[in-house]
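Schema walk-through. Below, the input block comes first and the output block second. Nothing else is stored per chain. Lengths vary across the set, and this one has 338 residues.
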Amino acid sequence: MPKQQITIPIFLPNLGCPHRCVFCDQKKSTSTKQVPGPELIDTMIENYLPHIKKSVRRIELAFFGGSFTGIKRETQETFLRAAHRHLENNTIQGIRLSTRPDYIDDRALELLKKYEVSTVELGVQSFDDSVLEASGRGHSADDVYKAVRYLKMHGFDFVIQLMPGLVGDNRESSLRSASEAASLNPTAVRLYPAVVLKGTGLEELYRSGRYSPLSIEEAIELCKDMFLLFNSLLIPVIRMGIHPFAPGEIPNIVAGPYHPSFGYLVKTRVRRDEMTACMERHIGNGLPGADRVSIRIPERFMEEYLGANRENIAFLQSSFNIGHIDYLIEDIPAVMIA
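--- output ---
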């Protein structure tokens, strides 16, 4: 399906942050070496516009990589004023930004309303206070609940960012965090499994044996279950996995479940499970060991059902001892055995 909305990101690495969390190095994760000036907004928009497809109906400008509401107020206004000019001209249709939960209050939100910011993204990471403390976040779960109350009271859309696999985290606490996030009914969610970056406190813990990151398989399975929880409640998961690193920045990844298409891996796992369940429902009809089976696959999610290099089809063949699987791409709502 063609994209109908895009985001033009302006990265402000660690600007407004009171300290450095153990997992964080925004200069490495965003490939941005220094904080840009407001003039970059015009340049970024000018560079993006010629490449935006006709299907796009909404363009948003986003300030990511720092704690925007923690920046000096006059600097916030400088950035917001530059963005708002494009909003007034209808070059863009929305402004969003990311910040810390403990940097949200009436005064901060009144400024954002003045410049018609539509969406605030909260770097929550976890609802487990022990995980937050071990990660050096400097805020508590209670700060998240307070921030959400302010955001709802002022009428902002809000996104919750979660980071499963942090120090002291485990599968159960990550799933509890997902459940807590869902209970707040956010506009959307982002899932960023923790990755060990060079030069961070997390690298020190990893090198000393005091921290073990999730494997790629563990991260896929965990984020799959978190994704399914949000999906069941009609809460969009708008990203899974950190943004792809430029080739020259890959050496900055020390360990952890990094993959440039991590979200795709999670979605293909969801589809694989759907096809496996479909096969299992037909076991009584003699599918195990069959020479040939035909599967009808929804056209809309064809790539997710097939998997990279048809790996999901190969998985089913091996799991159910099937000689050959024919797949039919059709305009249907769910996978079926033909």
